[in-house]
Write a structure and sequence with these properties.
homodimer, alpha+beta, 60s Ribosomal Protein L30, Chain: A, Phosphoribosyl-aminoimidazole Synthetase, Chain A, domain 2, 6-stranded mixed β-sheet, 11 helices, 24% strand, globular
Amino acid sequence: MPRLREVGEFEAIRRLARRGVEAPGVVVGSGDDAAVMRLDPDRDLVATTDAFVEGRHWLAEWMTPAEVGARVALANLSDLAAMAAVPRWALVALAVRADQELDELVELERGLERVLGANGAAVVGGNLTAVAGESSITVTLLGDVERGRAWTRSGARPGDLIAVTGHPGRAGAALRLARERAAEARAAEWRELLDAWIRPESRVALAGALAATGGVTAAIDVSDGLIADLRHLAAASGVGLEMERLGADDPLLERAAAALGAGVDDFRMGPSDDYELLVALDPGRRESCELVVRAQGVPFTVIGTVTGDAGRLALARGVGRVPPEPKGYDHFRS
Amino acid sequence: MPRLREVGEFEAIRRLARRGVEAPGVVVGSGDDAAVMRLDPDRDLVATTDAFVEGRHWLAEWMTPAEVGARVALANLSDLAAMAAVPRWALVALAVRADQELDELVELERGLERVLGANGAAVVGGNLTAVAGESSITVTLLGDVERGRAWTRSGARPGDLIAVTGHPGRAGAALRLARERAAEARAAEWRELLDAWIRPESRVALAGALAATGGVTAAIDVSDGLIADLRHLAAASGVGLEMERLGADDPLLERAAAALGAGVDDFRMGPSDDYELLVALDPGRRESCELVVRAQGVPFTVIGTVTGDAGRLALARGVGRVPPEPKGYDHFRS
């Protein structure tokens, strides 16, 4: 199979970029100096960028190129979900080695496009460059939201409830299992756990349904780790948080923690990029929120309350002790 | 001076991202899951992304961190200029080593912000990650343009004129001088040449003035090299090009070529990321176009004509011979 060194940059771009793809709102797509898009006049533009680096954000022995592409897309989609935005258009910057096989790179790009497409977004442009070090993918995802209706991290008010989708902590546990128990992690019993890390689910549709209830006052996605992201939400809103629990009962995570000689809360409190939604809720709309989330078959757990005690993150007795430092993933210290 | 390993990711982001900066059209800036912006309803959105890699797109011994940041900004601004778009908002993804000095990174970011700011754009978001290999910066620049009025590469029609700003070829000559004659290249006589490579000028204001004349039928920026970009323009428009010359008289480039034992057209035909504007003009508006460009003190040279002979790039006798292959810069073969 040919490598980039053999085919060159321009042939690689020809294979990677699908020109002439018709996508809603696209006036000029890939192949010009820039892409041109048309937004509805009653919508705000929402933009996020996220980079994945080989060996850090993905382990080649655990993910196919298509899964890597899909996961980068999911990370960006998760940021838009946390703003209640609808994904529309993406720009994809690839930095790869000259010995990269072109077919693998095309597979990665197609995996990325597939997940974006399933969530309503299309690739409208990109960039391809060579590196000698690790490969990386940087995706900028653009979306839109009804004018003035984007969720932010800063809207939580004392008395609001805190709720989370899915099972935070699983992605971090899966990563550790893969790193420390490579052979064992491939067993069928860990498949669901590994999926939480390799193939996280999009929360875009869920965010749309939640937004329609009008019950969400603030939101953030769990991409650093639950405790770290709770702290981010509290800091941005200038509030405190009183946590009754750190998630739904999760026998799978309990089993994984036991197998790794850790406690379940070690994973819920530590770094874990689960791409779940962490939201503050108007308590009067709790039921309508629970209804729409569960209608999509997604776990949704009220885990705490917002307090006026700015900066204080308290855990109810028996839940464990909050680590003194925000224990998110730190790229430069890990 | 502290390195990223010492201060960690979150402190670095705190220093790099300016939260709460008020910029026109920004509803939610840096610090949330995504940025939210408001576009005027009569404008189209324009988006481009460009990545610079250490050692490839910049040589640390020739550029200060602020100059590196400025040049990345200019590369992106050049893409928007080629669409006649007004720059508005940028997202900046940095991938750096843990031993990177934080102060240098902040200097780079400030250099980038300064050039963006001078061209009307503000940073609204970004990403910071660690790499073990070369550092890189990926900028996504968003702008807007009057609805339906973006320039493209595909609008050139037989009979149009081809014109170029500035002195294409200088950036490529400067890079070669720096690589091959390091000490000599630092002499005062090469300062203007080196500036064409290190500190290219923004053509954003120029593009705006040119757009107002209504005389431009197609545009591309010279970022690969004049011949390569002429080919891109011709291919996108489905036309041929008959070139009378490859640029204005350029004694500086002639001197540089002589010093390097090359011909001036070697640089005009070879890879050179000059970030100049290459445009097709309605011949009836030639004079008004020339007027507005020269009013800004920028050289503007009509270098050829568009023909109906699709795919044919011909050079007038005495101009030299067109290389058989598009001689742009190829990242994977250089």
